[in-house]
Amino acid sequence: MNIRLENKFSQTSVNIERIHKPTREEFKNKTLSYRKPVIITGKIPDWKAFGLWSIDYLNTVIGNKEVDVNVSKNKMFTVDPETEVILPSKKIQFTEFTDWIIQEKKADQYYYLQQSPIQTSFPELFPDIEIPDYMNQNLFMITNLWIGTGGNITPLHWDAAQNLLSQVRGRKRILLFEPKQISFLYPFSVHSQTPHISHLNIDKLDIEKFPKFQKAKYTECILEPGEMLFIPAFWWHQVYSLDQLNIAVNFWWKANLKDYFTAPARRFLLKKPNLFWVMVLQKPNLFWKIIEDFAGLISYKKRV
Ligand SMILES: O=C(O)CCC(=O)C(=O)O
Fold first, then answer.
1. If you measure from the C-alpha of residue 159 to the centroid of ligand 1, how many angstroms do you get, rounded to a whole number?
2. Cα(107) to centroid(ligand 1), Å
3. How many CA atoms, within 13 angstroms, populate the side-chain half-sphere of residue 153?
4. In the CATH scheme, what is the code of domain 5-298?
């Protein structure tokens, strides 16, 4: 049975507050020490990227590059939540990709440049952005570029990292579920390649197969160009791109040890029980090495 999202599950009391250019201390307070989502306004408009990043500018700077775009037949990227199949990617010249975006063609396949590390894949663009100072720089992991078009969906998943999803062009609609909602969200098996992804296709839900989802509570927001959404580690999120040109950058940094006691993380520890002993023995370097290996394993970039 197919249902529409808005009728079948309810909003939480978690409000996503907008804060203008907070200091690190204000950010820490408003997020309850990195555990609650907030939207930051006023920072991205100071980046060069905010004035510069048009299709013409990007074509001039990186147009000759070959890029790896993810391909989908139905605009759901990069995993089919029902079958667990990891969808293919394709190498094309960047200008071919932007031509495709401009033409807004109805097609039998759709593209999304997802999670491309800026420092290594597009170093030319790195001076146009500013790494936010809301985290200790030694916790910083990676900055990724996301370019796509309206209708693209990144399905429900969590990441083992704190995240500032930063919108440069176009808007995104984001659904957020607290980590403890996991019991209603049908994650893939801990032994799968992608234990951080949910089986739910929220917009085309089979309620007979996934009845517990009716009890799930969520919060949602529309992220406007120039805004950053803080997504705490292990929070479930599903992301809808809106508008014809959609460009975002995300910044990932290491989660706090206490985040590893949330429900999705406990499942994660189950898969890597040696992590528990590393934590107990307080060997932070080794701990983060294992986390990074695991984050690598669950990264969208890894293909079977
Ligand atoms: O923007 C998207 O499509 C997905 C972003 C995301 O999942 C993330 O930043 O973790």
1. 9
2. 23
3. 18
4. 2.60.120.650
d(CA 247, CA 254): 24
pLDDT at res. 22: 98
Spell out a b/e string for 76-97, using b for 16 or more CB atoms within 10 Å of the CB, else e: bbbbbbeeeebbebeebebbeb
**Predicted pLDDT of residue 3:** 35
Probe residue for ligand 1, chosen from 69, 72, 115, 196 as the CB with the greatest number of ligand atoms within 8 Å: 115
| 269 CA from centroid of ligand 1 (Å) | 23
Low-confidence ranges of the chain (pLDDT < 70): 1-9, 11-14, 271-304
What backbone torsions phi and psi does residue 156 show, to the nearest 5 degrees?
A: -60, 125
pLDDT digits (tens, 9 = 90+) for 183-230: 999 999 887 878 889 999 999 999 999 999 999 999 999 999 999 999
Phi, psi of 285 (to 5 degrees): -65, -45
Sheet containing strand 153-157, edge to edge, reads 10-11, 217-223, 172-177, 236-241, 153-157
Is the distance from the beta carbon of residue 250 to the nearest atom of ligand 1 less than 6 Å?
Answer: yes
pLDDT at 278: 56
Q: How many Å lie between the centroid of ligand 1 and the Cα of residue 283? A: 30
Q: What is the pTM of this model?
A: 0.88
Name the residue ranges covered by the structural domains of the chain. Answer: 5-298
User: Residue 255: is it exposed, middle or buried by C-beta count within 10 angstroms (0-12/13-18/19+)?
Assistant: buried
Q: Would you state the structure tokens that stand for residue 114, as one six-digit string?
A: 């997802």
Counting from 1 in the atom list of ligand 1, the atom nearest the Cα of 77 is 3
Alpha-carbon distance of 36 to 297, in angstroms, equals 26
- Please answer whether residues 205 and 9 qualify as being in contact, where contact means their C-beta atoms are separated by less than 8 angstroms: no
CA 230 to ligand 1 center in whole angstroms: 11
**What is the pLDDT, as a whole number, of residue 300?**
41
Cβ of residue 89 lying under 6 Å from some atom of ligand 1: no
